[in-house]
Amino acid sequence: AWFRQLLARLDEVMTHFEEEGNALETELGGKLYHTYGELHTELLYQEEIHHRGWYEHVAKIQSCLSVPLLKIGDNANSYKVNFHNSVTEVILESENCLRMGRKVPDLALLVILCKPKIYYAYEGVKALVARNLEIRKSIPQIFVNLIQSQTMKLDAAFLPCLSNISWTSLTIPQILDGIKNILDKVDMFCKEANDMKEARVDETLEVIG
């Protein structure tokens, strides 16, 4: 885009000189116009070279969309969203090229078409990952073993997103809904366990104390 911006600035300058009557008819004006023509041609050439290189970059974006939605996080039982920034870059650059009337690869057009789905998946899985961590942190230490069966359900729910569900999968909405349902159930179980702890265990400890 900066090629076009620079060309536009150069055109503004030349338009100003043209409006000054015979400014370009002088010897200096002629040299200026000649230099402008050479620079204009070179910028268009460099833009074309850059555009061809960008085509090659776009061809690699398919591998970024073929990875699983998640990867294992730094801490135990945590996950990271496995989303490559190149996807967003290609979307923005492709939309910009279309606005300028430039051709874009078919793959880029497909990615633009799938943009709502991709962003929906990104925001959805990011929220589920955050909620998973929040629920796990809320589990009292004394109930870790008791609730192990519930946390195993969480692990199982997220497993498809670590293996075979990629950013191009058609079943992403169903998978995310399934994870949300499991999170709701485990969250309810944990809250009931916490309520039991506060109502019985903590109360008993206060009496003993």
UniProtKB/TrEMBL annotation:
Residue runs in coiled coils: none
GO cellular component: axonemal dynein complex
Molecular function terms from GO: dynein intermediate chain binding; dynein light intermediate chain binding
InterPro entries named in the record: DHC, Dynein_heavy_tail
Protein's name according to its UniProt entry: Dynein heavy chain tail domain-containing protein
Family matches, as Pfam families: DHC_N1 (PF08385)
Biological process per Gene Ontology, one example term: microtubule-based movement
Annotated PANTHER family: AAA+ ATPASE DOMAIN-CONTAINING PROTEIN, MALE FERTILITY FACTOR KL5
Residue stretches making up the Dynein heavy chain tail domain: 1-173
Family classification: Belongs to the dynein heavy chain family.
